[in-house]
Urease accessory protein UreD
Amino acid sequence: MSLAVHPSEPEADPESVPESAPAPRRTPVPDRASLTATARIAAAPDGSLPVLDGDGPFALRRTRSTGPYTRVTVVGAMSAPLGGDRLALTAEVRDGARLFVDAAAATVALPGGTDTPATYDLTLTVGAGAELRWLPEQLVSAAGSALITRTTVRLDATARLVLREEQILGRHAEPSGTLTTCLTVRRAGRPLLDQELRYGPGAPAGWDGPAVLGGHRATGQLLVVNPEFTDRPVAARLLGEHAVLAPLAGPAALVTAVAPDALALRRTLDDALALLVSA
């Protein structure tokens, strides 16, 4: 994780670069070899954290929570991911536990000393009667970077989940790096959601066209899984001009949004979360 962007500061407007603009800056790459790093979190129903361990760029901190959740904040201890890095984080919310995970700053994918893409694998398991709120900061795909993220979620039939993903495609006045995001969610052993998105150089033609991003450089989604939606399903609807709320084939709802910048994207997803939590 990188501490280059602080969550309290509005994200710079990541618009497309005009043809006449100067060549985008390239962040100097730290002189280090590719790394492999892992982190693990386990939350128990009594509010304890039997497992809280991380290495490399992962510094996990238990932080104060004003609600009923045990809260963990992911703090970046060094610049990552860079090209060739292999990062993995697992979180287990045991039966009856409630866990809230956020981050101290955005994650910035940077170019490295190799053309091999970095990978970031996230595995989340939520047990019976348990609840997970996974609300990290944005993922910024800097020019020249290449990153593959894979998120795998396993839910008990009675589990609850709030999961937010936000991608900022390029910093101010620079094009996007190459970014592939995969999200697979299974509930009670059955598929709930399985999708892959690709952006930047090497992505299928049209990724930035009017049918996908329409020139926007901030995109994200919010997934809410709630067993109560079985009897009270969420109705499909538009949320403003560039976001849509859609029920899934299960007690879940997915909000997909694009925006001109990170601040507008966050406002849209926060409004959607407030709507779904009160639904």
